[in-house]
Design a protein that fits this description.
four-stranded antiparallel beta sheet; 18 helices; seven-stranded mixed beta sheet
Length: 551
Amino acid sequence: MKFFKIIVVLLIVLSGCKSKQEQTEVVSKKPNILFIAIDDLRPEIGAYGSEIAITPNLDALASDGLKFNRAYCQEAICSPSRASLMTGARPETINVIENFTYFREANPDIVTLSQHFIQNGYEAVHTGKIFHKPAFADLDVSWSRTPAEDKMTVEMSKTPGGFALKENQEMFRKNQADMIAKYGPNAPRNGLGKGPAYEKADVPDTFYEDGYNAALAIATLKDMLEKNPDKPFFLGMGMKKPHLDWLAPKKYWDLYNPENITLADQTSGPENGAAMGLHPSFELRARYGIPKKGPIDDDMARTLKHAYLACVSYVDAQIGKMINALDEAGVRDNTIIMVWSDHGWHLGDMGIWGKATNYEIATRVPLMIWTPDMPKGSRGKTSEALVELVDMYPTLCELAGLELPSHLEGQSFMPLLDNPEKKWKKAVFSQFPNPALREWAANPLSQGMRETYFGPLIEEVEAKIKKQQGDKWNRDLFEKRLMGYGMRTDKYRAVIWKDYINPEKEPVFVELFDHENDPKETKNIAEDYPDVVKELINQFNKGWKGNLAEI
């Protein structure tokens, strides 16, 4: 009996040890990452103060996580922004400053964010748009598997232009055919021959791509947990809206009363601003039914903003479904959720429609993070720290306990999760090559573009630049080498226009905006404050390294 009691005690002790070991394994298991990308979303979210946007799921995430009020992209266009944040390096470092340069061809050996997680034992997969085109860019390197298409119960719609309505499909087909017949087979490369800018149709969420990709992300989550439950995952869910075209199910349009939709109140460019700082809204004007020149009238502007908002609510609903799936799968308590947009968007602000500028409205983005172990005092808080999308790579690495690759050019903002009010970066940086004399993919103007209906607009904006710049005008410089560098400090935005091939040369032009007194950047005050300009140029010359937070 005594021996039996000893055996029982030993079994209890061993059982207790095993339990502790299992607990340690649970605690030490690396966190999962849910990486949610949204395309072309400015901070038009309830949590960011929008008085009209209906975004309950993003608002709920912000109320329980940490929201960054001053987060900025590195370039306000898709490919450079996404390539930068996914490689953790800045656009000029990776030689991606327009949409047609594929980052991997320019940087064969660079280690991307998801690739680094794979190298550290993660399963990495994505649905929708994370990198720019193609949809599954860098599949064999940045992703360890494909999404669970075989688990889907609905098929992806493959209608012309993605439209649901037959009349819009036919319009898209016809416009493409007409454009090719008139301008040749390369016309679609420049985004010409489009259908309408928006559509509302009484279809299920999964008809349009974001609804389908959200359902695919959920199916993939379940598939990963079923096949390999003990392996941490990096799951990217890319939402294409509110990128043009603004296609969303009718129920999301019906959330809004058009009479309550307010329009931009600043409908002209900054006083004394750079003539090359704004573009002629090429991307929107390529759509059917949009005026090819001149202003967008108020009725159309209200419809367009309504379409944008409907897409924002549509995307918000998909994000809510994904987060609910985490809860239902029982993995929320070990998953870090990061939500970001690749750049902002002018909705008539400064008189233009689109991204692709160096101003606040195009470079400031929503960015929020939720972690299971975030301090209670930080939950629901808003940080005013200056942060950048290039900072996400080192932040996620640090949160997951991974070493940081040596090539990174961002700074982990993990300390802000403990103290959102901590003193942080002195400045953040973005850039964009001459918006006025570039196509909307940021590539230099093609002859074909000049021969289209955009020709007169190009001539008009070129005349304004010549008038403003005088003897500084040089076609090769302004069309191919002029870069606007935006630097945002706590108080100011400076846009320094330079020849990026010859950076040692003096700036061609400088813009200065006082955000304490002029948050909408209505007036360039550079000529009135030369000492401030000199000080900011000195700060700019220190680069991103010279403006990091002191830890």
